[in-house]
Write a structure and sequence with these properties.
The structure is a single chain. The protein is of the alpha+beta class. Among the domains are: 45-80, no CATH class; 128-207 and 265-351 and 387-418 and 455-517, no CATH class. Helix content is 35%, strand content 10%. It is built from 17 helices and twelve strands. The chain has an eight-stranded mixed beta sheet, sandwiched between helices. A hairpin with a 5-residue loop joins strand 10 (491-495) and strand 11 (501-506). Helix 3 crosses helix 4. The model is unreliable at 216-222 and 364-375 (pLDDT under 50).
């Protein structure tokens, strides 16, 4: 017997609910249909209606229903771009537009040089073939340092333009110093010999035209005259009896005289020598004009070692520090560049040599001439033509014996060569004996002054293994770019004393120094300013200038009683006092006998 199927309770209700339309599902289907892209233009109706409605709501015109189609047509025309139109109507930010205007002159070919009658060999120009910054960037990328490729390319173009406008014989990319507002791109240059001679002659002429420094006269200055007159008036007033004066005048101490004499300032090294051997040009970025930094003086180097200040990017910024720096940020930047170059420019052992490097008699004579009569260290070197690059394992040695300094050491005086503040006069032995016999004391004092110990430093091409550590920090770190492909690995040396200084070497054949940092030396501890000098003593301590306690009333009364005149002795009646003068005369007669 077939029985009718009876649904269970609740089953019919679920089936009835499933038959009802789902508005959310229908909405998603409709939106997907409107977003179907056209096969011709790639647009869809959903985006088109969105743009049309946004434009209508933004403008809110009257009677929009009458020209709704016109709005739709304008939206389509704005989106339509024919294949023949290659102009892009896009928004360019002002900074990017300004940078593009600066880059455009670098991309144009250089104008043809004017015809000259000078021999082309005499027209020396810096060799840009050794300044392929893109090749340099390739090695830097292996080392993990460097700048963006586009920036390196434009720096190379800017360097090409610089050598055509300045008398430069050699140029090299030195590095980049980061500032708080702007950065500094630095290139290291060597000028032509004629330019060095011209600069030294100009500097010497300026020194001769300057008036000699006025010596401080021994007499009292006008301001001191007024003080001396005032002090004399006060002394006279104290000596006068009456108002304002006393019975016992007190002499005033004399005006103190300044007896401090500053040490003579060492003269700056001439252009092309020592710390001023190289010339540095800087700019704030690709496309900006190059600015030549001035030569530095010993005092600027000494003060730069005592201060610690970040760069701002403005060359005319004042340096507000203690001790006071003699100059602006331009001179401070040049001082830091000189210090970094002297301490971080290194090369593989044997790459440079003294003399010509051919091993002949001429080289020995050159070395003897360079050594100097006083046994001074050599100051010039050249590339060794017989250079044999060391192996990679030697360059990666932790002792750093296969790397040497080729930058001259800057003495504490602020120069690479020591300047004697008290030179000994060149006189014969007999004349010296006569002078010693005539003025022994004066000559003894002068001998004490003239006995100044000369400052010395490590000579050129000194191995890095002799560098001193700073509170347990090794001065150098070395590593390899690859431990797998040793045949193509690069040795990378990093300075720990000057963070940002790097040097790489490709199996000892090619090497390059670069600096990318903030231009500040590493400080293991926090930087602290130098304390102010102690206040000098104006007067020697004594009762004349020291404050005394006022006496009490009892003490004053006791002093008055002690200083009362002694009473005359009372004589008995009938006796007369003998005159005191007669007794004194008798005593004098006895003394004469």
């Amino acid at each position: 017997m077939i029985q009718e199927y009876e649904p269970e309770p609740g089953e019919g209700d679920a089936q009835a609910i499933s038959d009802l339309p789902s508005y959310e599902h229908e909405f998603l289907n409709a939106k997907a249909f409107l977003q179907m892209a056209s096969t011709n233009t790639g647009d869809n109706l959903y985006d088109h209606l969105t743009e049309v409605l946004n434009k209508i709501l933004a403008e809110r015109p009257e009677n929009i229903i009458d020209f709704f189609e016109e709005y739709s047509r304008k939206i389509k025309e704005r989106r339509f771009k024919p294949m023949t139109d290659h102009l892009e109507d896009i928004y360019v930010p002002p900074g990017r537009y300004k940078l593009a205007n600066k880059m455009m002159p670098l991309l144009r070919p250089l104008p043809p040089s004017e015809p000259s009658t000078v021999d082309p060999e005499d027209l020396e120009m810096a060799d840009m073939s050794k300044n392929d910054l893109l090749e340099l960037l390739y090695y830097f990328e292996h080392c993990g340092v460097g700048l963006p490729r586009s920036e390196m390319f434009f720096i190379m173009l800017s360097m090409r333009k610089l050598i055509h406008t300045e008398p430069i014989s050699a140029i090299r990319f030195w590095g980049k110093i980061f500032g708080t507002l702007k950065d500094y791109i630095v290139v290291e240059c060597e000028l032509k010999e004629e330019e060095y001679i011209k600069r030294n002659e100009t500097y010497q002429l300026q020194q001769e035209q300057q008036p000699p420094p006025a010596e401080t006269p021994k007499e009292i200055l006008p301001s001191d005259n007024e003080m001396a007159v005032a002090l004399s008036n006060i002394a006279k007033q104290q000596q006068m009896p009456g108002e304002g004066g006393g019975k016992f005048p007190r002499p005033l101490p004399p005006v103190p005289v300044i007896q401090h004499e500053e040490l003579p300032e060492p003269p700056p090294e001439p252009a092309g020598v020592g710390v001023n051997k190289k010339v540095y040009y800087i700019c704030n970025g690709p496309g900006y004009p190059w600015i030549q930094l001035p030569d530095i003086t010993p005092k600027q180097v000494r003060v730069a070692r005592q201060i610690y200040k970040s760069f701002t990017g403005n060359l005319d910024e004042a340096i507000c520090t203690y001790p006071e720096f003699p100059g602006t940020e331009k001179e401070y930047l040049r001082s830091q560049i000189g210090r970094i170059s002297a301490g971080t420019h290194i090369s593989p052992l044997g790459y440079y040599t003294f003399g010509g490097g051919m091993g002949g008699e001429d080289d020995e004579e050159d070395e003897e001439a360079e050594e100097g009569a006083g046994g001074e260290s050599k100051t010039s070197f050249s590339v060794n033509p017989k250079y044999e690059p060391p192996q990679l394992k030697d360059l990666l040695d932790g002792s750093m014996s296969f790397w040497v300094h080729h930058g001259q050491y800057i003495l504490p005086q602020g120069r690479t060569s020591w300047w004697n503040p008290n030179p000994m006069p060149e006189v014969g032995d007999e004349e010296m004996d006569e002078e010693m016999g005539e003025e022994e004391e004066d000559q003894g004092d002068k001998a004490k002054i003239e006995r100044v110990e000369p400052e010395t430093g490590p000579p050129l091409l000194t191995p890095l293994s002799e560098d001193a550590t700073m509170e347990g920090i090794p001065p150098w770190s070395v590593r390899s770019t690859s431990n797998i492909m040793e045949n193509f690995a690069i040795a990378v040396v990093r300075s720990n004393l000057w963070p940002g200084a790097y040097c790489f070497s490709t199996q000892g054949k090619n090497f390059q120094n670069v600096y990318l940092g903030f231009g500040l030396k590493c400080l293991p501890q926090n930087y602290s300013l130098l304390p102010l000098p102690p206040v000098q003593q104006e007067y020697p301590p004594g009762p004349e200038i020291m404050e005394m306690m006022d006496p009490t009333g009892a003490e004053e009364e006791q002093w008055r009683i002690d200083h009362l005149p002694k009473p005359k002795p009372v004589l008995p009646e009938g006796e007369e006092a003998e005159p005191e003068e007669a007794e004194e005369e008798e005593e004098e007669d006895e003394d004469e006998d």
